[in-house]
Design goal:
The protein is of the alpha/beta class and 378 residues long. Among the domains are: 1-42; 43-193. The chain has 15 helices and 14 strands. The chain has helices spanning 7-16, 21-28, 32-42, 53-61, 94-97, 123-126, 129-132, 165-171, 208-217, 237-247, 261-264, 288-298, 325-331, 349-358, 360-365, and strands at 45-48, 73-79, 105-112, 140-147, 162-163, 177-183, 185-186, 201-204, 226-229, 253-258, 277-282, 308-313, 342-346, 368-370. The relative contact order is 0.06. InterPro entries: F-box-like_dom_sf. This is F-box domain-containing protein. It comes from Mycena albidolilacea.
Length: 378
């Protein structure tokens, strides 16, 4: 008996198994109709490491190669300890990587020594023109610049190795989304380095002031509609505050992590009247000041289009009981926020019962939601 499975169900099954390589290989053997989607999942992401880059390029040149159309993402990594590390600076790989015409995501990790002389730092020191050749195709760029343990002869000191991330970003003409995972220090860019015209989404886990300051100088901040900021330094607060003011009404989504009073002062939500999504990760300790800062921050909201507000209590669930929820309950009224559909409070089940009783208006309206620990976010 022949069994006919709807293609929509086949697609759902394969997508569900997307992270299981062995399962995808097994599925590809079921029938010819399943092969293409399985291959798309199997070869969607390819790792480019010092020990495999030459073999990978040999494969791309082969007339028997059938994975070119499936590669959407490359994870490339420089590893100073590898004897093959210089392969990623080989000029011969440019044409090979240029064959990946469907590439849209590039994740680059730099494991480098801070003892390298400052005058040698440049985009080609980190990656070859071959790796950089694929940048005009990239719409999502993920950068992770990790220093090795600091050396006494380091030109900029411990944790301060300047990496030319902005030079790399400016090469991605099609870039729409930028994520910086880690960067202890960002090298000053040349005057010719301009933000890609379509860049509108920023996730800055590190060096936020350097990136925002560069974009501000280029007049690009009004083009940004989504920003995620993690822990910021005290010295970064004035730069970030001024940058967010320049972003202004263009911002639709904001996610911030706050841990002390200095961090709170970097944000004024009244700058963003068109905000639709707000996420606040609270790392602050339990204190009266925490309540003052949290409620004070939210009550600066003047965004009638707000649809979602999420508050995550990451460090200490007991901070939930220090918040003046009554003030928040009254402030988040349908009259002020007619499009509000979700207020998510991430805390333990016990603490959420307290929150429900403290937010009767939001509870009755059906918008109050919770996410019990362990949190999905950290």
């Amino acid at each position: 008996m022949t069994i006919h499975i709807p293609q929509e169900l086949v697609d759902e099954i394969i997508d569900y198994l997307g992270g299981d390589r062995d399962a995808l290989i097994a599925c590809s053997m079921v029938c010819r109709a399943w092969v293409s989607r399985c291959r798309r999942r199997l070869f969607k992401t390819c790792a480019l490491l010092p020990h495999n880059v030459l073999g990978f390029c040999d494969l791309l040149r082969s007339p028997e190669c059938t994975l070119l159309q499936h590669v959407r993402k490359i994870d490339a990594s420089r590893q100073y300890w590898s004897t093959d590390d210089q392969c990623l600076r080989s000029k011969g790989i440019a044409a090979d990587l240029g064959r990946l015409t469907h590439l849209c995501t590039l994740e680059m990790a730099f494991n480098i020594r801070p003892s390298i002389d400052a005058h040698r730092i440049g985009t080609h020191i980190l990656f070859s023109p071959g790796c950089l050749a694929v940048l005009p195709l990239v719409t999502l760029l993920i950068l992770d610049a990790k220093d090795s343990p600091a050396q006494p002869q380091s030109p900029v000191g411990a944790g301060g190795f300047p990496v030319p991330l902005i030079d790399i970003i400016s090469l991605c003409y099609a870039l729409q989304e930028l994520r910086i995972v880690s960067a202890h220090a960002v090298a000053h860019p040349p005057a010719s380095a301009m933000p890609p015209p379509g860049l509108h989404s920023l996730t800055l886990r590190s060096s936020a002031s350097s990136i925002l300051g560069w974009m501000d100088a280029a007049g690009h901040l009004p083009n940004v509609d989504s920003i995620t900021l993690s822990f910021i330094l005290r010295s970064e607060v004035p730069i970030i505050y001024a940058a967010l003011q320049k972003v202004g009404g263009a911002l639709r989504s904001l996610e911030i992590t706050v841990s002390d009073r200095d961090a709170w002062t970097a944000y004024d939500l009244s700058f963003h009247p068109n905000l639709r999504t707000l996420v606040i990760d609270c790392f602050s300790r339990v204190s009266a000041e925490f309540n003052y800062c949290l409620i004070g921050l939210i009550k600066r909201l003047a965004a009638p289009a707000l649809e979602s507000l999420s508050i995550y209590f990451v460090r200490d669930d007991t901070a939930v009981r220090t918040v003046n929820w009554g003030a928040l309950d009254a402030f988040l009224s349908p009259a002020r926020f007619p499009r509000l559909r979700k207020v998510l409070i991430d805390c333990s089940a016990d603490e959420f019962q307290f929150v429900r009783s403290a937010l009767p208006l939001l509870e009755d309206s059906g918008v109050l939601d919770s996410m019990e620990k362990p949190s999905r976010r950290h």
